[in-house]
Design brief:
312 residues, alpha/beta, 2 domains, binds NADP nicotinamide-adenine-dinucleotide phosphate, Rossmann fold
């Protein structure tokens, strides 16, 4: 029996995410048929990587050349762009796309409703990965999850494309998109924000950012591996996990002297650390004293939070 041919894919928006998906799909054998972007030259550069791929500054070109269109523009432009697209009824001669997908984790799929009203299947395809736009993204995305929201044939096609990228399909309950996306920040951008706080504090000791990152990134990589092996509670290390009350108290006091929100940030993260420590089969002996110190520090520094960070 002959294999059904893979759908032709197209992209509107040739940014960081589109570069990885287009390269990944092409490598898996999906024809990348068309790429459009606000700046025609951006689309042209990316399209040049794929045989037979057309490029344009006009999104409609993609609708007419692809079977499944990925709307990979910034979130604020998804609805307005979707509203401009015109899909022709399918027929043996029609080249109009039958599926329209956006890749935002936070925006509702309903933004694509104007396409659904024209008989097109709509969906969401959100890779849980922080794209840089560099070629290395294609290798690094392997093993990640992609949250798919679609029905019927489009769901099947997107699930197959997820596997083709070496990723795992994930589903979330209806209406859960915004909370899901807000929470996911802690595993990507907010992890960077934690590193930025470390770098800012180390800068007061004379470290440049590069030197600080060279020192702490291997520790972060090791922490991730340990979390994979032992779970969050089992992987927790540092003074909270040991019940070292004196260290936590002294660090809170020191950070309070720096002003700004440094102590408050440390205290709020410590709250989560205390929760993890309490989940252990044998929580550390000093955990209640640590919790009290953290809450007292938070009460003292609450007025300073609005001042923002003082160490840059
Ligand atoms: N980056 C990530 O880590 C990541 C992760 C998961 C999901 N996403 C989602 O993926 C989508 C794209 O994000 P991104 O990070 O790839 O954005 P990006 O790097 O900023 O790229 C957006 C691209 O769209 C083009 N563009 C902007 N407005 C447009 C319009 N009205 N019509 C056509 N093209 C337009 C841009 O302009 P030029 O043509 O001028 O370059 C650019 O090439 C977003 O929905 C985002 O939430 C991103």
């Amino acid at each position: 029996m002959s294999q059904p041919s893979l759908p032709r894919v197209g992209f509107i928006g040739a940014g960081r995410l589109a570069r990885c998906l287009a390269r990944g799909f092409a490598r898996a054998g999906y024809p990348v048929a068309a790429i459009a972007s606000r700046t025609a030259a951006t689309a042209h550069d990316l399209a040049g990587e794929f045989a037979g791929c057309v490029s344009s500054g006009d999104p409609q070109t993609v609708v007419e050349a692809a079977d499944i269109v990925f709307l990979t523009v910034p979130d604020d432009s998804i609805g307005t762009t979707a509203n401009t697209l015109r899909f022709s009824a399918s027929s043996s001669t029609s080249r109009s796309a039958w599926g329209l997908v956006h890749c935002s984790g936070a925006s509702p799929v309903e933004l694509l409703e104007p396409a659904r009203a024209q008989g097109v299947a709509i969906g969401g395809f959100h890779p849980l990965y922080l794209f840089s736009g560099a070629p290395a993204d294609i290798e690094r995305i392997v093993g990640c999850s992609v949250t798919i929201e679609a029905d019927g044939a489009l769901h099947e096609a997107l699930a197959a494309m997820t596997s083709a990228l070496g990723c795992h399909p994930l589903s979330i309950p209806g209406g859960g998109r915004m909370l899901y996306h807000a929470a996911a920040h802690y595993a990507a951008s907010f992890a960077l924000c934690g590193l930025a706080e470390c770098v800012a504090l180390w800068r007061t000791l004379g470290f440049a950012e590069d030197d600080a990152l060279r020192a702490v990134l291997p520790m972060l990589a090791g922490t991730i591996e340990t979390a994979r092996d032992r779970g969050l509670s089992g992987a927790l290390a540092g003074p909270i996990s040991r019940g070292d009350t004196g260290v936590v108290q002294k660090q809170l006091t020191l950070l309070e002297t720096l002003g700004g929100d440094h102590a408050a940030l440390y205290a709020l993260m410590s709250r989560r650390g205390i929760e993890l420590a309490r989940r252990r089969p044998s929580p550390p002996a000093g955990i209640d004293t640590i919790a009290e110190a953290v809450e007292n520090s938070l009460a003292r520094s609450v007025n300073q939070v609005s001042a923002g960070a003082s160490v840059k």
